[in-house]
Amino acid sequence: MTNPAPKVPQPDKRSVLLIGDVQVDFCPGGALAVPSGDQIIPIINDAMHLFHAHRFPIIAVRDWHPPNHSSFKEQGGPWPAHCVQMSKGAQFHPDLVLPPGTVVVSKATNPKREAYSAFEGTTLEDRLREVSADRLYVTGLATDYCVRQTVLDARKLGFQVVVLEDAIRGIDASPGDSAKAIDEMRTAGAIIAKASTLGL
Q1: Cα dist. 107→20, 65, 85, 195 in Å?
Q2: Tens of pLDDT, residues 130-169
Q3: Active-site option among 27, 38, 83, 146
Q4: In whole angstroms, what is the distance from residue 106 CA to residue 63 CA?
Q5: Could you say which of 21, 38, 144, 153 is catalytic?
Q6: Which of 35, 20, 28 is nearest to 175 (CA)?
Q7: Which is the catalytic residue, given 38, 63, 107, 153?
Q8: Is 27 a catalytic site residue?
Q9: Is 9 helix (H, G, I), strand (E, B) or coil?
Q10: How many other CB atoms are found less than 10 A from the CB of residue 73?
Q11: In the structure, how many helices (H) and strands (E) does the chain have?
Q12: 138: Cβ–Cβ under 8 A, 6 or more apart, which residues?
């Protein structure tokens, strides 16, 4: 007999909507495109509308690489150059409608560090503590890299996490990577839910 799925908590004033790396370079046509990465944007926009209407915090995280970042193939890394600071590819996707007051956090700004997690080398934890957040609703790209590592770090820091699985997409460099990432996040204590459970 399987355990029942955990009840999905509803957002409140101590909840934050976290949007990860919904940038031009990670969407179709970009330098490091996540397949169908742009298809999650309408769902994220709806979630942002809900949070903004209730004046709950929204934080948008972005890759913000220096031109000589160690993750780039030119520097011996695994990825093509992407999300270079001030470039078009580093901009949030134009269909992503960030409400007024959205906080932007930049990551992977150290040329010597990969920094998949939105917490690594950033002000994210401080921003969350400032608004007394205890729960994150996580969306964005890519499931098997930045979303996964951000969620695992959030759990280690003691935050409750709800991953909106219809508002994330993965790369699946190896088949099944995204499914494994979701299982790993669930094992770490994250709740995996649909955005529709938030009344969208």
Answers
A1: 10, 8, 11, 25
A2: 999 999 999 999 999 999 999 999 999 999 999 999 999 9
A3: 146
A4: 6
A5: 21
A6: 35
A7: 107
A8: no
A9: coil
A10: 10
A11: 4, 6
A12: 18, 20, 147, 150, 151, 154, 161, 162, 163, 164, 168, 190
